[in-house]
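re: ur question from yesterday

yeah so i grabbed the chain u mentioned. its 295 aa long if i counted rite. heres the sequnce exactly as i have it in my notes:
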Amino acid sequence: IRGGFTRITFVIIAMMLISIVSNLILVSYARGIYDGPYQRMVVIDNIEIEMENLQRNIYTGIAEDDPVLIRAAVNQFDINLRKLDDSIGNLIVLASEDESVEINLFKQKIDRTVEIIERIKGHLTTFDAENNNEYEIALSVMRGEAIPIFKSAAMTFDVLKTQSKQAAEDYLKNARYAQILVVSLMVLSLFVSIIVSGKVSKRLEREIITPVEELVEVSTMLSRGEIDVEITYDKQNELGVLAESMRGIIASLRDLIEEADLLSHAAVEGDLESRGDAEKYQGGYREIIQGVNST
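ran it thru and got these structure tokens back, copy pasting raw so excuse formatting
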């Protein structure tokens, strides 16, 4: 009986372990998606935005003729470059070994634009007496030197975007496979637990319900004074011990009745000296025989 309950306990524990492992797998992939492909895509989007903002601010500075607005646009150059450098640093941390080559190449190209942008800043912030700056020279430097480097960097950046997109797709594909695996494990564990629980339940029914019903029936018969009963259950378990004890009770009652019959017959025949064997019994049964012997 205990073995049956132990098996059920093991089934429950196994189900809990499978559930925990399945959740850990899903959490691991969900965290991996966030820490890996998702974060890389966010950083790449930020880099693309900062590159666009940097070029837009340069053209804004060239197009403006108000010194205040020109200086405001020029001040944004440094902010854009700093944010761009930070994003590239984050991308290096998140990138795989295969992507590091393209990222370093992209960073080198962006670094080459820093000196060019400084010269553009100088031309835009050099004003004459009439507040005219050297915007034509700045435009020439932008078109002749900065734009080609930006275009080359954009080509390298497109490769990075493609690599990142492919990595995200591969990871999501693996995540879907993991999800299918987890669902399959849970369905399989549920199926196995149903089978095992069914078999254990049937076994428990054979080992508990059937013998209990037999012992209840025997107890009912004994309460009515019927001692001509037999207990067939003989398993080596807790109910088997109970069944054996009840057999002992039945045997003791039969012996007691038989002993009482012998004493009754002896008394009827006038043999008042006949005595019952009290040593054969224990407890209350012995007291009954001893009481008869004393009369």
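noticed a couple things. The chain has a mean pLDDT of 79. also Residues 135-223 form the longest helix (89 residues).
anyway ttyl
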